[in-house]
Every structure is written in structure tokens, then in C-alpha cells.
């Protein structure tokens, strides 16, 4: 939207300009809630807006002549920006001229020297008065005081300026009157009008009575801007019918020309050629009007004036300018599409098609340009952003004009994406499997779990903790046995493991980042305790004290392979460490008894003889298959006696003991089968999980 107001210059501070809320048709409360802001194209803040009333007021003194000089129309441009959603309103404030400056003549007065033989109708330019006002308030006319010889002619220039000329209406006679004193009054068109005066003193000279005459009253030329130095503009031609020095003509630029024009053009005083000696810029001036005078060498000198109008043709010599009105170099990665990143103002000092500018950005970037109105664009996000994919953008805004060939300018906008905690930590493995030998040292590192978080800084700082896995024994708390370093993820043992008490641990490790709110993830850790041969076999039968041996009685008529007894032992270890073997190490008669290697059964090998001893001591060693192996020894005494009460009692005890042996063996077999089954099921489950 665009709104235009008109106010006179020199208004007091706080003067009313307009009601933006009323002119936009919106509620004042909405403007205040939308964070209304005033942006000015100029360096000074001439206006302010009361967000509570919507009224635009003057905040600084406005001098139209200082702002716009002699331009007929003077504008100040404002932009009103509101948020939620972002909208811009362009306001043009036209500054109207008031008649606050009177015309002023340069210097204290004007002195002219005119020959008495000057022709009737001869013109004598007077330095014009200057009035910085414009329109009707600027200089409008001149008035000359009453006199007998001169009349006033006001010459209008193409740029609207007016300068006076004295026109000789009646011949001069120096002998009758040598000096003439006139008063020239300059008056503007204001209401009321303002004026100023200057005094003209004319000295009448004798002699040279013919002045130079140009072959044309005015000359015209057309040049392309940026023409090279030395380019010929025009060649002037003036003649003087006098002879000798009175007819010798010298050309020069009139004092009416400004200092800036004298730096651009130069004239050859002999030939009258005007050439370029400075830079021609269409954007600074489109037309130059050069005042030239031709003087003869008489005494006194006579002169003639003419004007040369030089039109400048525009070429595309100015690249577009890109001005950042608003820009944020940091953008949150979760900014929604359509977020305004920058407000860009473009301009081109050339005219016509060469001054029209188009802007664009690369289509490969997640940004786009929206044209708000003429010469202003907004840079918006076009898609979702992801800092973990691209953390930094260099957005090149290209502005090109429509000239031939076109000129362009590229401005790079560096945009860094601020991190948002939008990525949960990820473990390097879905689960971890650890084999730990029992009797491990306290504090030994069992496994190191590692996770990564693609976020940055605080959002990527990870912390590890141990949690009990679902479905595990409630009494088997992993934090009782294990600890984890919160930053390195190293899992350590608090106590040595005992395979005979715990064969397997399962727990979760949870990792959380430092974002707010924090994001978490878990992994499952399986700890398998590996058995070590740390338990010697224990003899369950026959039971005996530390320093005593168990006695068994047999009849002398016992024949081989009669079972004397059976040694029963159990090893708390598992696997090979629990595989037991039985060995007869010492015997009174080594050839009379033997021990079964695996079952521990002691049998008689041959028939007893009368020469055999009546008591036989046997030392049986039970050894496991561990590395190194562990063993236990048991001593048995076999007594050879005839049947009697004691022998019978011994036989009954033996029978009773023999009846108990199969039950213990059965228990051992069932225990081994159960242990083997549980091990096989565990290994099968582990294999399935690995697959």
C-alpha cells in the first residue's frame, strides 16, 4: 500500500501530518500490538508516529531548499513496517514550498562600461538574482527604475531561470552624461511577494563603436554522457566590422556560468571551439546551457553574448545499487517457510529502461525473493531448514538493470543457522554383547558404549546412565554391580563377578543430550559371565572327617566284579571345569581294586586270598578338567571280615548306602541336564538376537 501526504516546509515540531490508522482503515490498537516501526530512506528522522493514536507528526525542522534544492517537487519517503504478519506500507510526504526566501543579487552592485556609440538595441546582461524557492515563490520578474536611455528585458532560460538585460533604447552621449545610476528590483511571486534591489552604475565610454556579432543568436549540440576529454561540442563564429584591434575577437565563457560548468567545458579564445574537459554524467545534469561572450580588442572592449544548449544522452553506465534496509545474519533452523530474513532496497541512477532493476537469487538455495513494491524486495525462506545438513549459507542477491548490455551487481548475504535440539542421540550399535570372566578386578572396564548427536554445542553434550531392562529379575539391579561414566560411556564393574551366583546380566544404557527439553535414546547391553576353574570338586559320599577315613566291610568270599562302594563328588563350576574324573592313587594292594574313571565306582578286581591283608586302605583322587585342574582326595578303608553281627551290620549299612547311591546319582544327572538345557536355550536366544 502507498499513502501520500502534502505538508508545507518549516512546520513546527509535533505538527500533524496524517493519521495512518485512519488512512489504512485499521484499528489503532492493532498497529500498537503489531510493533509498528518507521523506516526512513534519508539519514535524518523527520517524522515520527504515535502508536497510540496512529498520528504521523513532524519531529525535525524541514527545509525544502536544503532537501531538494531547485527541484520543482520534493518528496520524503517513509516505510511503515508491522509484524505478525510482516507488512510494509510506503508513505510519500510531499514538501510544499513557502515563500521564505527573498531574491538576492550577488555582490554590492553592478558596474557597466558602455561605449557612447553603442548601437540602439544593444543588450547588457546583468548578474541575475537568486531565489532558492520554487514555483510561484521563486523569482518572477525584474523592475528597472525610470530613465531615458535604457529599457529592461528579462530573458527566460530553458531551465526556468530568468536573467535581466539592459537594452539601449536611446543613443548615449558621453559629453552630455558620463554616468548613469539605475536601480534594478527583483521580485518573486509569493504572497505577499518579497523583493531585493541592486544599484547599477553605467560608465559611458568613447571610441570603438561596433561590437562583435555572432552568426546565430544561439547554438545547440547533443553529446553522449561519458564522452572522452577533448570532444568537440560546437565551433562558434562571431564577426566585428571594425578594423585592427577593434575587430580582433576573443571568445570566453561568460561569468554567468557556474564553477561546475567551467570545469566541464572549455573554449578556445582564438577559434571559438568549445570542447569537453570534464566528466559528462546524465544522472547529474541532462542539459547544459553555456553562456559565451565574444570581445573585441578595442579600447574600450566591446562584447556580444550568445548561449549554447548542450543536451546529454543517457547510456547504461551505472550498475544497480543494493541497500540492506533490514538484515538478520543468524536464523533459527526451525524457522517456518516464509520467514523474512532481509529487506532489500534497489536503485539505479540511469533513466528509462536502463534504470529498471530486477533481482533474483539462486534457485538451488532454500531462499526466495518477494517483490514488495517498486525498488523493494524481501528475502524469505522457501523451505524447511536443517542445520545438520547445511549450517551456513552465502546467499548472493543479483540485481540487473534492463540496459543493453545490462549491468548487474551481486551482494552476498552470509546467513548462519542457529541450532535447535531436533535430533535425538544415536548409539553406534543397537545392542552390545560382553563376555566377562568371573573374578574380574574391581573397576575394570567391561564395555564402552558410544553415541553421537548431530546437533551442536549444548544440544550435543551427551550424558550416559544405566537403567534396568524390562523383564529382568526385579532383585537383580544392574546398578548394584555396574557403574557408567556419565560422559565417556565406560561401563565398569563395582564387584568381581561370580559365575556360580550370576551367569548373565541385561540392562539398558540411556543417553540424553543437553537440550531443553532433552532428547533420549537407549541401547541394550548383554553381559555374559564366563566360568573360571575356581572351585575344587567336593566329595558328597562317602563323607569323612578331615583326619579320618571311611570304613567298608566285605566278606572274604566276595567275587569280582562286585561293587564295593561308589565315590560321589560334585564341582560347582560348569562345562569342562565340572567334568570329573576318579583316580586310585594309592592302595594297599593295587591289583585288588580299581575305580571307574567317570562314575567313581570301586569294584573288586580278583578274588580274595588268604594271603591278602585283612584291611586295605584306598586313596581316591577326584580331579576336574579345568586349566589348571583342581582335585580332592578321599581315603577309604576296606575291611575283610567273616560275616558276623558286625559284618552283617556293615553289610546292611553297605546295602543302605548302596540304596542311597542311585538317588544321588539321579540328582546329579537331573542337575546336569537342567544346566545344559538352560545354556543351550540362552545360546539359541543370543544367536537369534544377533541375527
Describe the protein.
The protein is built from six helices and 49 strands. The longest helix is centred in the last third of the chain and has 46 residues, at about 645-690. The model is unreliable at about 645-660 (pLDDT under 50). By secondary structure, the chain is mostly beta strands. The chain starts with a strand and ends with a helix. Helices cover about 10% and strands about 45% of the residues. The strands form 15 sheets. A four-stranded mixed sheet has the order 1-7-6-3, with no helix packed on it. It is a single-pass type I membrane protein. It holds the Pfam family Cadherin_2.
User: Would you report the number of β strands?
Assistant: 49
Q: Give the overall form.
A: rod-shaped
What is the structural class? mainly beta
Give Rg in angstroms.
59 Å
Overall average residue pLDDT: 85
Q: What's the helix count?
A: 6
Beta content? 35-45%
Widest β-sheet, arrangement of strands: 1-7-6-3
Distance between the first and last residues' Cα: 67 Å
In short:
The chain contains six helices and 49 strands. It has 691 residues and is mainly beta.
Question: Could you give the topology of this structure?
Answer:
Elements: E1 2-8, E2 16-19, H1 20-24, H2 28-33, E3 37-40, E4 47-50, E5 55-58, H3 64-68, E6 75-82, E7 87-96, E8 109-115, E9 123-125, E10 139-144, E11 150-156, E12 162-168, E13 179-188, E14 195-205, E15 213-214, E16 218-224, E17 232-235, E18 238-239, E19 249-253, H4 259-264, E20 265-267, E21 273-276, E22 287-296, E23 303-313, E24 321-327, E25 330-332, E26 340-347, E27 357-360, E28 367-373, E29 376-381, E30 392-401, E31 408-418, E32 426-427, E33 431-437, E34 445-448, E35 451-452, E36 463-468, H5 478-481, E37 482-484, E38 490-493, E39 504-512, E40 520-530, E41 538-541, E42 550-554, E43 563-566, E44 568-570, E45 580-587, E46 593-595, E47 601-604, E48 615-624, E49 631-640, H6 645-690
Parallel strand pairs: 1-7, 8-14, 16-23, 25-31, 33-40, 42-49
Antiparallel strand pairs: 2-5, 3-6, 4-5, 6-7, 9-12, 10-13, 11-12, 13-14, 15-18, 17-21, 19-22, 20-21, 22-23, 24-26, 26-29, 27-30, 28-29, 30-31, 32-35, 34-38, 36-39, 37-38, 39-40, 41-44, 43-47, 45-48, 46-47, 48-49
Keywords: Calcium, Cell adhesion, Cell membrane, Glycoprotein, Membrane, Repeat, Signal, Transmembrane, Transmembrane helix
Main location: membrane
GO cellular component, one term: plasma membrane
